[in-house]
Amino acid sequence: MAKKDEPKKVTIKLAGEPPKVVKPLTPVVCKLGDAVRMETVITGSPAPTLTWQHNGRGLPSHARVVEEGDGLRALVIDAAALEDEGDFLVRAENEGGSAQTSANLCVQGEREMNKHLVSVEVKAILFLESKMNFRRNIQLCSAATFCVD
User: Fold this and answer.
1) Is the peptide bond before 46 cis (omega within 30 degrees of 0)?
2) Of 18, 35, 85, 135, which alpha carbon lies 20 to 30 A from 27's?
3) What's the CA gap between 63 and 3, in Å, rounded?
4) CA pair distance 137, 61, nearest whole angstrom
C-alpha cells in the first residue's frame, strides 16, 4: 500500500508523429536499360510502414526498395524496361496517420526507335516511287520524237 507522501505514477501514451513526406518522389526520364533510382524521405514516430505501388499494383519483381536511414528510402531498378514505365506511389502509415508521394517514370527506347524506322521506311518508299516515275518518264520521252516536261 502506498504512503500518503509518495507520488503516484501515471503512464501517458503519446499518439506519436504522423508520417511526413520530407522529400517527395520526383519524376524520372531514362533510356531503355538505364539504372533508375527514385528517392523519398518520409519521417514519423513510430517509424511508418511503407507500401510501394507501380500503376496501382505491386512493384515489378526486379525492382527493390533500399532503406538508408533517417527516413531515406529508394526504389532501385538496375536496368529499366518498357514495362517499368508508369506511376510509382509510396504510402506511409503509422498509428498517427498516413501520407503518400508519387511520381512518374518515363522509359525512352524501342518505341521511339520504331517511329524513326517507320519514318525512314516511308522516305525510302517515296524515294523509290519518285525514281520509278522518273524512269517511266524517260522511257516515254525516248519513244517520242519530241518530249517536253
Assistant:
1) yes
2) 18
3) 62
4) 61
Does one domain contain both 85 and 132? no
**Do 57 and 124 belong together in one domain?**
no
Cα separation, 128 vs 137, in Å, equals 14
Backbone angle region of 71, left / alpha / beta, with phi > 0 → left and psi within -120 to 50 → alpha: left
CATH assignment of the domain containing 86: 2.60.40.10
Give the global pTM: 0.65
| Cell numbers given for 30 | 531514362
Q: What pLDDT was estimated at residue 130?
A: 72
Residue 42's H or E segment, with its range, is: strand 36-45
Q: Which portions of the chain are predicted below pLDDT 70?
A: 1-4, 10-15, 111-126, 131-149
| Enclosing H/E stretch for 143 | helix 110-143
| Contact (Cβ atoms closer than 8 angstroms) between residue 37 and residue 27 | no
- On whether the CB atoms of residues 67 and 113 are closer than 8 A, the answer is no
Query: Torsion angle, CA of 69/72/78/83, rounded to 10 degrees?
Result: 140
